[in-house]
Design a protein that fits this description.
single chain; 331 residues; alpha/beta; Alpha-Beta Plaits; GMP Synthetase, Chain A, domain 3; Rossmann fold; 3 domains; four-stranded antiparallel beta sheet; 34% strand; globular
C-alpha cells in the first residue's frame, strides 16, 4: 500500500523520527523501511509533517505493522506512563494499582528494563525524588533526545523528558560562536545540544553527581572541548565570568528569581535570557518580567521577545518561559 513517507539519510533517521514523533506525525500502522542509504519513515499525512521536512515527502509502498500489545489492552484502561531510556515511569498513589500497572508494562511490548513508581515529590536543593522500583533494579539509563544521548540516574539527578520540545526550541536559537551559560545545567540537556551547535558553554549545577554525568554526556556527544562543567553555586561564577554571556539558561522555575542579580552580572552587552517560572494563570508572565526589569535596572534595556506556556504545572498554575533580550545601555 502506498503511503506518505519522509525520506532521509540513514544517519539522520533517529533524529528525524524523534522530531516527527514530537509533532504527532508518525504513522504507527506502517513499518519504517531502509533502502540503501535512505530511511523511509511513514507519516500520518502530508499536512501533519513539519515544514522542515516538506521537501522530503515521497509516496512509497510500506508494509503494515503488527500492532504491539499495550499496557492499556492488558489493563482495560489507559495508564499514565512515561518513557526515559529503558525505564518506564508511572505515577500511582495506590500500591496495588501501581503493581498492576507495572506488571502490565512488563507483559506488554513496551521496551523497558525497569518500571519505577514515583514515591515522593521533587525535594531539596538538588531537586531529586524517591522511587519505588517495581520491575528491574537499575535506576540508571541512557535517554535519547533530538540526536543526543544523556546518561543519568533518576535516583540521583533531576531530569524531565517532558521538556524535550521546549529544550529543542531554545537550542534552535543558538548560533555558533556564542558564549552561553547554563546556570542550572543538570546532566546537560541544554548545554550539550548548545555546544553541538557551536556555542562555548559553561554549565553549572549544585548536584555533583549531575555534573559527573554532564561531563560524561559532553564526551559521549563529542562536545567535551566546548563544555566547561562546574560543580557549585552559579553565583560563584560572577567574579570570573562577569559580562561574558551571549545567552543564559535559567531553568529553575521555583526560584530562578533569586539568581537574577547573578544573571545580570554574567550578561554581556547583548544577551538573551531563557527564564523559567511557575505562576498563576491570572498573570503567568508578569512576575517574571517585572523581576527581570528590576534586576536589570538602568544597566540594560529589557525586551521580552517570547512569552510561552511550557506546560500546565498544577491547577491554575503554569510552567512558563520568557525569552528576554538584555541590551546594555550606553551612557
Amino acid at each position: 500500500m502506498s503511503v506518505p513517507c519522509v525520506a532521509v539519510a540513514r544517519e539522520r533517521g533517529e533524529t528525524v523520527r524523534s522530531r516527527l514523533a514530537d509533532a504527532d506525525a508518525l504513522d504507527g500502522d506502517h513499518q519504517i523501511a531502509v533502502d540503501g542509504d535512505t530511511i523511509y519513515i511513514p507519516v500520518t499525512g502530508r499536512e501533519a509533517v513539519p515544514a522542515e521536512f516538506a521537501d522530503r515527502l515521497v509516496e512509497r509502498d510500506a508494509e503494515r505493522r503488527d500492532r504491539p500489545t499495550t499496557p492499556a489492552e492488558i489493563l482495560g484502561s489507559e495508564p499514565s506512563i512515561e518513557r526515559l531510556g529503558d525505564i518506564v515511569i508511572i505515577d500511582e498513589d495506590d500500591d496495588e494499582r501501581a503493581r498492576e500497572v507495572a506488571d502490565a508494562v512488563a507483559a506488554s511490548d513496551v521496551p523497558c528494563d525497569t518500571v519505577l513508581n514515583r514515591a515522593s515529590p521533587i525535594e531539596g536543593e538538588l531537586r531529586v525524588r524517591s522511587w519505588d522500583v517495581l520491575v528491574g533494579d537499575d535506576t540508571e539509563t541512557v535517554h535519547r533526545e533530538y540526536g543526543h544521548e544523556f546518561a543519568l540516574d533518576v535516583a540521583a539527578v533531576y531530569f524531565s523528558p517532558r521538556l524535550a520540545t521546549e529544550r529543542h526550541r531554545v537550542v534552535e536559537q543558538v548560533d555558533a560562536g556564542e558564549s552561553a551559560i547554563d546556570m542550572f545545567a543538570g546532566v546537560g540537556p541544554y548545554a550539550v545540544p548548545m555546544a553541538s551547535r557551536g556555542a562555548d558553554v559553561v554549565a553549572c549545577d549544585l548536584n555533583e553527581r549531575a555534573v559527573e554525568y554532564l561531563r560524561e554526556n559532553a564526551a559521549r556527544n563529542g562536545v567535551a572541548e566546548r563544555v566547561t562543567a562546574v560543580a557549585g553555586d552559579v553565583r560563584d561564577l560572577v567574579d570570573s565570568r562577569a559580562d561574558t554571556a551571549d545567552r543564559l539558561v535559567m531553568n529553575l522555575p521555583h526560584s530562578a528569581d533569586e539568581f537574577l542579580d547573578a544573571a545580570v552580572a554574567l550578561a554581556g552587552d547583548d544577551c538573551v535570557i531563557h527564564y523559567y517560572d511557575i505562576q498563576h494563570e491570572d498573570d503567568p508572565f508578569g512576575p517574571g518580567r517585572r523581576a527581570i526589569e528590576a534586576a536589570a535596572g538602568d544597566a540594560y534595556a529589557v525586551d521580552v521577545e517570547t512569552e510561552r506556556v511550557v506546560r500546565s504545572y498544577a491547577p491554575h498554575e503554569y510552567n512558563v518561559c520568557l525569552d528576554v533580550r538584555l541590551t546594555r545601555t550606553v551612557d
